[in-house]
Amino acid sequence: MRIAVKICGLNDAAALLAALEAGADYAGFVFYPPSPRALTPIEAARLLALLPEAAPLRRVGLFVRPRLEEIAATLEVVRLDILQLYETPAALRAEIRDRFGLPVWQAVGVADSADLPSRLEAADALLLDAKPPPGADRPGGHARSFPWRILRGWAPPGPWVLAGGLTPENVAAAIAESGASSVDVSSGVESAPGRKDPLLIHRFVEAVRRAETEAGAS
Predict the structure, then answer these.
(1) Which residues are the active-site residues?
(2) Is 209 helix (H, G, I), strand (E, B) or coil?
(3) Sign of the dihedral through C-alpha 20, 51, 17, 85
(4) What CA–CA distance (Å, rounded) separates 100 from 104?
(5) Is the CB of residue 22 less than 8 Å from the CB of residue 208?
(6) Phi first, then psi: what are they for 83, rounded to 5°?
(7) Does domain 4-217 have CATH number 3.20.20.70?
(8) What whole-number percentage of the chain has pLDDT above 70?
(9) Are 140 and 128 within 8 A, CB to CB?
């Protein structure tokens, strides 16, 4: 089984090209100013213009409590393939899907098994992230994880992505414990908050590919 890899919070050319060269599947761009990884739609468009036309990276835009006008203005400037939404009610997610015709990933904060969703509501996939610490100014990107083992007893209602505190050192264990078929990393491939390290991006993807090989051999 091939495990899909998303590198989130890309905001410079070296990191974006490293994600492409390493063989990542998704490139994530944060359109939420409190994040140290945030960039503007214009900045994202300029970065993506550096990619070859046939680059296989799918473009994911991350939004927190977005207004329809905010998403519309972003899509006028930069082409996205997927919308990843935090703290967005189901009714608004449904409206966003209908208006823009793009797949929606519903981000869910998880601390224990009680937080795991039992159904998909106006979303095409779930992204399971660790709940932020008290008083945090953003819902994700805090280098926190949750107990991956709780996912083994969960019946997912649809496709899902594992996020939260993943690094090149722990992603193999996370995959083995959770059974994830897609993983998302941001702070785990940074040398400082908001500064992606191309070498760590390569190491992360390599660790995922090794985990695939080991799972296939077992």
Answers:
(1) 8, 129
(2) helix
(3) negative
(4) 10
(5) no
(6) -110, 120
(7) yes
(8) 98
(9) no
